[in-house]
Amino acid sequence: MIRRPKPARPQGSDAAVPEQKSEEDADFLRRLQEGDEAAWRQFLDEWNPRLYSYMKYNVRDASEAEDIAGETLLAVVQAIRTFDGKVTLATFIYSIAYRKVADYWRRLRVTQELTEWITTGEPDHTRLEVFEALAELPEQSQQALLLRYYVGLSVAEIAEVLGRSYKATESLLSRVRRQFEVAFMNSAEA
Questions:
Q1: Are residues 158 and 173 in contact, defined by beta-carbon separation less than 8 angstroms?
Q2: Claim: this prediction has a pTM higher than 0.70
Q3: In this structure, are 104 and 139 located in the same domain?
Q4: Which of 76, 69, 55, 86 is nearest to 157 (CA)?
Q5: pLDDT (tens digit, 0 to 9) for every residue of the chain, 190 residues total?
Q6: 126 plus 70 within the same structural domain
Q7: Does one domain contain both 84 and 41?
Q8: How far apart are CA 178 and CA 183, in angstroms?
Q9: CB-based contacts of 185: which residues, under 8 Å, 6+ apart?
Q10: What CA–CA distance (Å, rounded) separates 29 from 36?
Q11: Does residue 126 lie in a domain region?
Q12: How far apart are CA 114 and CA 135, in angstroms?
């Protein structure tokens, strides 16, 4: 069963921390938009491994994951100047990444066996069952689960990435968790 992460809640004098974080994020975004070299180095140091990991999970081929992560970073560089900051930077980046993965699969149009997707050495039995259960879900359902539990985005951020309302995304996640659990139990019994 998939467990929901508990949201962090500010307590006492820490209540001002989200506002401070928001100001830091706005300053960081402004520096990126102005082309600040140190900000871009920091951005690449933080986001290159995160995007590669996300792509690797979606594509399963290391070189393809690198290429798509690179395409995503290039798209972020091109789009950052017009980014208005109404959503978090993470939501903005994962929205682009989500679309780059979809573009990849549209271009490929070839289905592969699940065992060919797993390139991270000898997978254990549970890992294979998880991949099999995920493979049974529709693409958007897979992405919703990955963005929530692998990447750690909030429901609101996932709604932005997928282009859905908050309530529709909440409903999707609820439905997908049940579908995943059934698929996982079925693959475990097989």
A1: yes
A2: no
A3: no
A4: 86
A5: 443 444 443 444 444 445 556 788 889 999 999 999 999 999 999 999 999 999 988 887 888 899 999 999 999 999 998 998 888 899 999 999 988 988 887 776 543 433 344 444 445 667 777 777 888 888 888 888 888 888 888 899 899 888 999 999 999 998 988 888 888 777 666 6
A6: no
A7: yes
A8: 9
A9: none
A10: 10
A11: yes
A12: 8
Q: Which DSSP string corresponds to 60-114?
A: --HHHHHHHHHHHHHHHHHHGGG---SS-HHHHHHHHHHHHHHHHHHHH-----H
Range of the structural domain that residue 169 is part of: 115-190
| Residue 63 amino acid letter | S
C-alpha to C-alpha distance for 183 and 134, rounded to whole angstroms: 8
131 and 104 housed in the same domain: no
Number of folded domains in the chain?
2
Angle at CA 114, nearest 5°, toward 123 and 158? Answer: 90
- Cα dihedral 70→38→21→173 (10° resolution): 0
The answer as to whether 9 is a domain residue is: no
Judge residue 123's burial from the number of C-beta atoms within 10 Å of its C-beta, 0-12 exposed, 13-18 middle, 19 or more buried: middle
Which tokens in the block code for residue 16? 């001002």
Rounded to whole angstroms, the Cα distance separating 47 from 53 reads 10
